[in-house]
């Protein structure tokens, strides 16, 4: 995954870069296509803010979180992205099953009856 990390009004921090790369690498196994991520760190009054823009093929995800600690903000933003990603994948799966002529529930019932 290609990741671009930007610091606005903050000193660049290598441990934060590594932390973000580690967290974003977990999304690779959930994706079908290559992805790019843009991460922006900045400070807003006393809160530290993280904005993450994530794209993989036609999928575009965005998350913005603030927290007293930068790692906390990263974790909260990653949770948001994971939820958005799972919702998008479930939505596409549901579209595929409807396109084949039966709902997801009907499909599970028919598979149970066959077994």
Would you kindly provide a written description of the structure presented here, covering whatever features stand out?
It is a single chain. The chain is an alpha+beta fold. The chain has a single domain, classed as 2-Layer Sandwich (Double Stranded RNA Binding Domain), CATH 3.30.160.100. Helices cover 46% and strands 30% of the residues. It contains 3 helices and 4 strands; from the N terminus they run E-H-E-E-E-H-H. It has a 4-stranded mixed sheet with strand order 1-2-3-4, with helices on one face. The mean pLDDT is 85.
Ordered list of secondary-structure elements with their pairings:
Elements: E1 2-8, H1 14-25, E2 36-44, E3 47-56, E4 59-67, H2 70-99, H3 104-114
Summarize this, please?
With 115 residues, the chain is of the alpha+beta class.
């Amino acid at each position: 995954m290609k990741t671009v990390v930007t610091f606005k009004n903050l000193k660049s921090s290598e441990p934060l870069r590594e932390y973000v790369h580690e967290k974003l690498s977990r999304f690779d196994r959930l994706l079908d296509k290559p992805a790019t991520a843009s991460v922006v760190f900045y400070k807003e009054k006393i809160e530290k803010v993280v904005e993450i823009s994530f794209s993989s093929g036609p999928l575009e995800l965005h998350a913005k979180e603030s927290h007293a600690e930068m790692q906390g903000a990263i974790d909260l933003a990653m949770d948001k992205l994971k939820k958005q990603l799972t919702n998008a994948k479930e939505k596409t799966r549901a579209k595929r099953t409807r396109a084949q002529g039966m709902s997801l529930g009907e499909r599970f019932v028919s598979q149970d009856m066959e077994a």
